[in-house]
Amino acid sequence: MQKLYFLAIDDASFIRDLIKRTLRGVFDNAQIDEATNGKRAQSLIAKNQYDLILCDWEMPEMSGIEVLEWMRNFESEEGMDKTPFIMVTSRGDKEHVVEAVNAGVSDYIGKPFSNNQLIKKVLKCLSKNHNELVSAIVKGKAGKLAPKEQTGPKGLFKDSSDILTGAAQSKVESLKPSAKNVNEVKGGAGLLTSNSVSEKLLTTQNTSRQRVKSGNKGKCQLRVSSGKSKGDIKDINLTEILIESSREEGFLPQLFEQAVVDIAMPGQATEAAQINGFVIAVMAADKSQDSEKIITQVKYVDDDPSKMEVLSKFIAEVR
Predict the structure, then answer these.
(1) pLDDT digits over 67-83, tens only?
(2) 203: containing domain
């Protein structure tokens, strides 16, 4: 099988590892480099020719959009062909999508994403320069996906033409956050999305002191690969959060999967954070098989200073 060269850029090791596992699960002979920040990515891009780059938007010091803009200028100055570039981000609002498109992004995938969603995006981008290889993979004649495996995850290879044309764009008792971390707080064009997540969240934000005293500490939205759901914050600190949400059809968080928690400051649309993390516990809200509520515990993997600032302000407000 032809060797392909990928570059995964993300400051969160959890996301880089997920991308590497997903790619290696499909491509027999993949070389995957990784960069923890934009500066390291610049160095690798300047020295190597990649078949595809996957880059996080929100990174300290140098953002993904800055990496993309620099790379397109570098390619132009060197007379190089444009490298396919997928922006990976928890931002899905219109202005950010437009900004990425204007900067020359090849495609855009929002966090959290499933393995199937990521592979569809990757195959679509690769099909421009490696059409024969992609065709062989979706037909089961190349890569690590044997015919029986192709019928596993629903819809992954149900229609190879959709993948090639881009038509298919899609799905224990918990430990509470420690008091130690709580004390430290004191002292993603309308093509892909409509209104911003934070604006929608603000319409249901309830921050009355009476509600806080009753055990809830405000509202948030939890996004996982199977869907999204608004819920009540049962507890929160600088490292993790407990969210109570309804058991909705198609929405079921899975252990260790990616998650994004949308938190907005009360009454301030500009003060919002889409915090990346992963699920470390899921349980029924009460001891009943028919429980209509579930509790999901999410541990953060974000290290973005602006998000942590909003998170700190939010915790100080609701406690």
Answers:
(1) 999 999 999 999 999 99
(2) 179-318
